[in-house]
Amino acid sequence: MYKIMTLNKKNLNEFRKLNENNDHFNLLNMDFFKMYDNGSFTNKVFLRRRVKLLSYNFKYIGYIWCDANYSYRNVYTINAMNISNSINIELIDPYKYIVNRLKKNSTFYYTCQNNGFNFNILKNIGFETVDGTLILNLNLDHNIPIAIKEDINFDILKIGKDEKKRCLIQNEIFKNNTRVPLSLDDIYFDEMQSYYLKKGAIFIKKRNTYIGYGQIILEENVPIIVNFGILKEYRGKGYSKCLLTYLLKIVICNGFNNVKIKVNNSNYIALNLYKQMGFEIENERYKWKIKT
């Protein structure tokens, strides 16, 4: 028999045990106790209220941890969800039970990395995909020929001078109805982060006109190409390949032997370019939603 209960001081240690395997269902599940153990008394009270524990035959087997989106009514984010894989019952049933007890007339969003079984479970309990990101990896143990065009050259972003230029170019490249435009503050904030690589922020120019931008960041000492794109009117002319190979040369010159890149799952043109360059899909991350 299943039972749902709110996290409290009495069952906190049981939850701590469950949280030890918090990434079993999803590597992107947040670690509750990284926030909880460093929180104030008041914060701990609020955090406990956001977690629901699931028991089966009086044994704690799983949990779900959600946060409200205060900008939109009845919209929530699932920070983590997991059921112990040691229980001797059909795995889909406890996930279905815990999701069916979420607040009614609400929408819940959950970002999940594919591990071979979690996507099937989410589909079967009523979630649907919103959008996805593919993480691709390229081994750089072979020569990367630079794609050259006579009228193309590259500039490194000059901190304190080129932020407005980057902001305008990125907003134009990635413009759509659902995206919130970047502000100059966003650019300045990006430059202050530990992952920011000064020599990895690159503009591509056609003669004297800036036509695109690409950036290399470092996450856990792994180079990742982000914010990569060409202005719409210059696409389909080989400029993306020019910029990409230039960025790859920067990665190689900095002593790295592999690089990653992130791409939206629906961006088939970019995905084809990356695959042509030898990138292979390493993992998939999708945002899912369910309406209760």
UniProtKB/TrEMBL annotation:
The keyword Transferase applies. Residues 152-292 form the N-acetyltransferase domain. It comes from the Bacteria. It holds the Pfam family Acetyltransf_1. Keywords: Transferase. The keyword Transferase applies. GO terms for molecular function: acyltransferase activity, transferring groups other than amino-acyl groups. Signal peptide: none annotated. This is GNAT family N-acetyltransferase.
